[in-house]
Each structure stands twice: as structure tokens, then as C-alpha cells.
Amino acid sequence: MEEDKKKSRRKFFELGIKFGLLATVGTVAVAEAMDDEDSNGMVELMSTDGNIIQVPASEVHDVAHKQPEDYDPRVGIPDKKFVMVVDLAKCKNALKCQESCNKNHYITGDNAWLKVYKMQESEKTAPYWMPTLCQHCDKPPCVKVCPVDATFKRQDGIVLIDNERCIGCRFCMAACPYSTRVFNWNEPDQPAAAHEGVYTPDHTGKPSVKGTVDKCDFCPHKIQMGELPHCVSACPNDVYAFGDMYEDAVTNGSGQTFKLSELLKERAGHRLLEGLGTEPSVFYLPPVDRLVDFEEGMENYTEFQSVKKTEE
Amino acid sequence: MKQYDKLLKDLAPQKFGIIGKVWITFLAVIILIALYAYYQQFDKGLVITGMRDYALWGVYISNFVFFVAISLVGSLVTAILRLSGVKWATPLTRISEVIAVAAIMMGGLTIIIDMGRPDRILNIFLHGRLQSPIIWDVLVITTYLFISLLLLYYPLLPDFAILKKHFKNKPKTSKWYGKLSLNWTGSAKQEKIYTKSIHTMSVMIIPVAFAIHTVTAWLFATTYRGGWDSTNFGPYFIAGAFVAGAGAVVMLMFILRETYHLEDYITDMHFDKMGKLLVLLCLVYLYFNINEFLIPAYKSTNEEAAHLQGLFFGEFSLMFWLAIIGGLVVPVLVLIFRKGRKPIPLFIIAIIVVIGAWWKRYIIVTPTLLHPLLPIQGVPESWHDYFPTALEWAITFGTLAAALLIMTILFRYLPIVPIHETAEERGYLETEKTETL
Q1: B123, B220, B374 member nearest A179 (Cβ)
Q2: Taking 60 as the threshold, does the pLDDT of residue A29 lie above it?
Q3: What is the CA radius of gyration of chain B?
Q4: Per-residue confidence band for A39, with pLDDT thresholds at 50, 70 and 90
Q5: What is the rounded average pLDDT of the residues A214-228?
Q6: Min Cα–Cα distance to chain B from A150, Å
Q7: CATH number of the structural domain A82-298
């Protein structure tokens, strides 16, 4: 069962990236596909309205596969708009997301890129746990103020930093209302693995550079392989779901895929500091009908714990 | 003839005395310590400062704002007062233009000091993006520096020609002044170009001066943070800059008058006028302060309330009230009295005004950063606060010392009070024209 889930999840991404739209369903995007062809030569697909439909296998065409050489980390993947949904009802501060993020981005500083805030709007309202990461705004204030185009937004909506370009003025950090950017105040003490390979801005932290700014990169290096970002797959509680807004689908760590628009409508999704007009790509579902007590998360809570250094 | 000779003797640059040499050594030592501190920062990174991810800007940026503010006085005295036909300001024009040049140079340097990757400074030109207020700042500060240098240099041309003649028994010195005078003879044609270009530059420098400090204000006002997110910020900064600059001019007027015995040229009348000007500037700045603090306090949104609480009653309250009451209210109260505008009391007030202005920049930058829109969580306890480290102070004082050193050296070789203009205004030139020039 677990294996199946993984398989279908991988399949979803492969389809999402490799295959285009189906002629028979018109402009409807493919959300999920079953691997097996039945005896009539039909395949089952899920349309964006959530119906399972059958399509002749012969109608499924392979769209020219994007060659890796075509891919420019500054330009991003065409016809995609990556989004994330964070379900606050499910978060119990397990911090597995943060751990995985720290490890895979070789974060050695004291300030993690992914933080779980202990939030309470006012004294009389219930406390809840709120994971934050770079919100990958559609109108990113950080990009606006960068004097050298070191931080930029790609066509797929991902906001990245070129740390070979960054001059370390920290204006982007001042401009970010979500305080998600961190600075390398000293020479990062990273393991050798962080220095392997050629530098590209789509795997932030590989390596981190003294005097430049870092932040969550939405894991384009994972997306390229058709996988989910580290935090999404590491979360034991399916808090995160990640996907493509144009496909109107997001997938969580267990491989369940949801229709984004319905999820946001039914669960009354919102974005952080929406009033600022930054148009984040990260949506939050309110902490209602919670499965677990807020108190459970307190076990893991410390005012501050230094980022666990990555083992070699 | 005698009068003119005395004028020349009084105003020609003089060699440093013992005090001058001690002063230069003192500044040099501070600068050397700063260079050592900066070497540490360059080597180890900005970790040697007290700044961290929340307090991401600190004393360097407030010092930068201070320098830009001080430099605005060049445009006030040389341009605004000149264009409004204020004759008494003539002996103060060079002092304020020297302050402007020294301050804006160190302001530019301070920004580079604050950068995490100063080695990549060329990226600003290679990859500059016009959307960024930093690029606006680079453009206007460079423009301002050039116009200020020209506005310092042009009125010096006749003075250099005079000095060439004055130092004729010192061939080397004389030769240098001669070269710098660009063959100034004082012919009608030269006079015409000279007057016209100074007038043109005086007009040009006013919008540029307003631009440098407005853009500096926009570095903050273009963000969403409580305390910075204000449409009042541009004029508020400009008003504050004139206060700081006028204070600096008064300080230098007093010190230079005492050191070089310029009592005949910088008179009590000048202090009186500058005192009155300072009252006006303080009142204008107070008005902007009321706008800047009263209205957000009246509404007390969550973003503003925490920030204002810290300023009015919290950890920054001492600095805040000292800057407001000590640096603005008290000066007004003292300087509205004639006795308060005598050189010594005015000098003391000016020192307080300048220190208050420096503090004011500190509390514009730091407290806001410590009250972000999302709460500060998940970082070491020490990151919740900011205080500059010893090395950071060393670098900061080094830039202040360097600005003073630039001024000291310029005052060593340039006539502090314009010779030609003063002689002209006093009518000494009528008899001299044929002989001297």
C-alpha cells in the first residue's frame, strides 16, 4: 500500500511535467493517472472537477520532454505555478520538516529557514502551531528592492537567490514582511557534501556563502526529479501539500492528491498578511477541528535550539 | 591696501601648530584602529558585529543616514541661502561645502562597510536594477558628491589665484595653487562664466540634495515595517538633516574661529543668525516628528504599538526623549533668547543637537527591526536585541574620524573664509583690481 502511494505520487509528477493536456478533455489538466491500461486500451484519469474518466490510451500523447539542458535555474519550468498548502489543523510541532530541511540544505546557522511558530492571535483565542517558510510571493517585496538582481522570481513562481551575485546589503531581509530570510554572518561550517557539484541557485545551501542571504527555495532540485520538497515528504502528519496551481492539484507527503481550489474553498484557506498584497504562493488552512491537542506540541518546543549540524 | 593685506594674512591657509598635529595624530590613531577592526570584519564576516537576522541593520546604517543628513547642509548654506540673496552667509559657505563633501564621501564608504560582500561592489554597475531604491541612492549620492565638489572648487578659483601670488616666496606651494586656479585672471569673461556656473550649480544642487535624503528615507519607507512604513518619511528626513547640518556648521564655525582667530570674519552676528536659523529648523523638524509619532500612536495598530511602546516608555525611551527634548526642544528654548545665541552657548547647544541627531538615526533604524510583523521566534535569546560590538564601534568612530580628517586637511590648504568674495563684499577690491589680479 505504502509502495503504491509512492508510485502514484511519482506518477503524478511525471505526468504533470512530462505530459501535456489531453485532447479529449480539452483544457482540463491531468491530475492523476493510473498506470495500468485495462483490456479495452483505456486509462483512468482524474479531471480537474474531480471525476474519474476513462480515456483511450492511444489518446495520451507524450509531449516533448524538456531536456535538462533547456532548463535555466533563473527562468524555471514553463507553464507551472508551484504552490503549497499548509494545514494548520494537523501541525503538532513534530519539527520533522525543519530537521529534513536543515539536513538537506546543509543549514549550519542558528536560524532555520523553516520555522514552526507558536502562535496565538489574542489571549482568548486558541494557540496553534504555524510552520513558515519563504512564501514565494507573486509580488515579492524582496525581489523589488534587490539592487543587483541576485534574488529573482522565476516563471514557475519560485523566488530564488543567486548567492554568487548577492552583495549582502540585506535590503531584501528588511523588505520581507515574513522574516524568512537569513544571512550568513560568518563562513558557513558546512559538510563537504555541500560543496559537491556545480553551484546553481536552485539548490540553496549547496553551498552557503559568507556575506550572502539564504532562504527556503521550494526545492526546485526535488521538483526537477518529480519529487516533493523535503519538508512535505518529511512531515509525519501530512501538514504540507505541494503542487501546481495550473493543474489545480496538490499532493501531501502520504501521496494523497487534492483539488487545490476545492480544498481552499471548503477549508477557508488564507495567506499570511494577505493585506500587504504580496500574493504568497503558500496557503494556510485554519487550525479548526484539530486532531491533536496544542499541548502535545509543547514537548518539542524550546525557546531556541541551535540547528542540528549535519553529520558527514 | 593695508586692509586687503591684513585680510590676506588672516585668511591664507596656515601650517598646523602643535594642537593641529596632535589632533591629526589622534584622528590617525582612531582610523588605524578602525582599519584593524575592518580587517577583522572582512576576514571573519559581519559576525563580528552585533547585527543578526532580525537586527539586520545597525549602527553602520544609522551612521550612514547621519552622514547623508549632515551633508545636506552644503546645499542649505551654499545654495538656498545664496539664491535667496543672504549676504551674511558668505563666510560660512566654504565651511558647509567642506562638511558636505567630507560627509557624503564617508556616507558612501559606510554603505560599503555595511555590505556582506564588498568585493562584489561592481555588481551594482554590472547588474544594477532601477527598481531598487539602493540604485537610486547610488545614483543621487554620486551626483551630489560631484556637484558638491564643483561647488566647493569653483568659488575657490579666484582664491587659488590670490594664494599663488601670496605664496610667491614658496615656489612649490605657489605652483600648486597656480595650477589649481586654472589660470584665473579675473577677466570679465571669466567672471561671467564663474558667476553663471556657480548660480547654475546652486540651483541644480537643491533637487539633488532633496533627492539624496528622500531616497535614503525611502530605503526604510519602501518596506512594510511598523515605524518605517510612513509617507512622512522623506520630508521628515530632510527636515532632520537640516537640523543636523546646521548644528555641524555652528560647531565648526566656533572651533575654526577659535583656532585660526577669525573673529573679524565669523562674528557674533553670524552666530546670532545661525542660532535663529537653527530655531526655525528645529521647529520644522519637531512638526514632522509630531506627525511621525502622534498619528501612529493615536491609532496604535498592533504593528506600531509595540514599536512605539519601546520608544516612548521601553528600552529606547531614554535615547528617544533625549533626542527629542535635548536635541530639539531645549535648543529652541535656549536659542529664542538673544543671549542663547552668543557663540559659547550656541556652540554647546550645537554639540547637543549633533549628538541628538546621531542618536535619532540610531533609534530610527534599530527599534523597528526588533518589532517585525511576525514575532521573533526560534533564534538565540541574544538575537532579540541589538547593541553594537566594540569592533563595530571602532569602525563607526573610524568613519567619523575620517570625515573629520578630510575636513581638517581641506581647511589646512583652503582658505576657510572665501578671500575673494569677502574682499569683494567689503569693497577692498576696487583699488586692488589692477594691482593684485
Answers
A1: B374
A2: no
A3: 23
A4: low
A5: 95
A6: 9
A7: 3.30.70.20
